[in-house]
Amino acid sequence: MNLAEVKAAARKAAYARRAEAHGRGLDGAAQARLLELLAPQRGRAISGFVPIRTEINPLPVMAEMAAHGPVCVPVIEARAQPLLFRRWRPGCRMAPGPFGAAVPVEGEEIAPDVLIVPLVAFDRTGGRLGYGGGFYDRTLERLRALRPTLAIGFAYAAQEADGLPLEPTDQPLDAIVTDAFTLTF
Q1: Residue 99: its pLDDT value, please?
Q2: Recorded E.C. number(s) (predicted)?
Q3: What does the DSSP assignment read for 118-146?
């Protein structure tokens, strides 16, 4: 198998594990861990995400952080380009974006200092397997070239995998927060 086929197989297995964990009441424990990790970051620009399909839900954490500083969500402008980030507030008007994730209808563009990153699978070294578009890898590479940028993977513990098929362009995570544990690197 080539690398693309290996990644596709790893994603398929991870989607199944994530689907099994989703809806089992695990989000609250993960949200509490994420709030604890983010407490020192209050007031800094933080990017979250609007969950799609069976992704874990960061919205309560984003709402809490929005009371202390700017919170934004990713917006896909074009394929093979870094993400842009638009300001998000609880209750802001949203519209469907590419790939089904809702984005704010209006709001200023923000360059986040901290990113809460969705993922399909992760490993214990900070490796992340995403959806395959490379959006977060390009974005993190761009932001990290400008200044220190913290990337926190947010997932169910069941999404952990051994031996992820990673490439040199894959940007590592600085921490991973799940319903069962927090890892920092």
Answers
A1: 77
A2: 6.3.3.2
A3: --SEE-TTS-EE-SSS-HHHHHHHHHHHH
State how far the Cα of 124 lies from the Cα of 164, in Å rounded to an integer: 10
How far is Cα 59 from Cα 48, in angstroms, rounded to an integer? 8
* Unique residue bearing structure tokens 């992820």: 164
Contacts of 144 (CB under 8 A, 6+ apart): 171
CATH superfamily of 3-180: NagB/RpiA/CoA transferase-like (3.40.50.10420)
Please state, as a whole number, how many other Cβ atoms lie within 10 Å of the Cβ of residue 23: 9
For the chain, 185 residues long, the average pLDDT of each consecutive 10-residue run is: 90 96 96 98 97 96 97 91 95 89 92 97 96 93 96 98 91 98 97
DSSP letters along 27-55, please? HHHHHHHHHHHHGGGTTS-EE-----TT-
Q: Measured between alpha carbons, how far is 18 from 11 in angstroms, rounded to an integer?
A: 10
Helix (H) or strand (E) holding 12: helix 3-21
Tokens describing residue 163: 């031996």
- Each domain of the chain, given as residue ranges in start order, spans 3-180
Q: Measured on CA atoms in the order 144, 45, 131, 183, is the torsion positive or negative? A: positive
Query: What contacts 132, CB < 8 A, 6 or more positions away?
Result: 7, 11
What is the pLDDT, as a whole number, of residue 1?
81
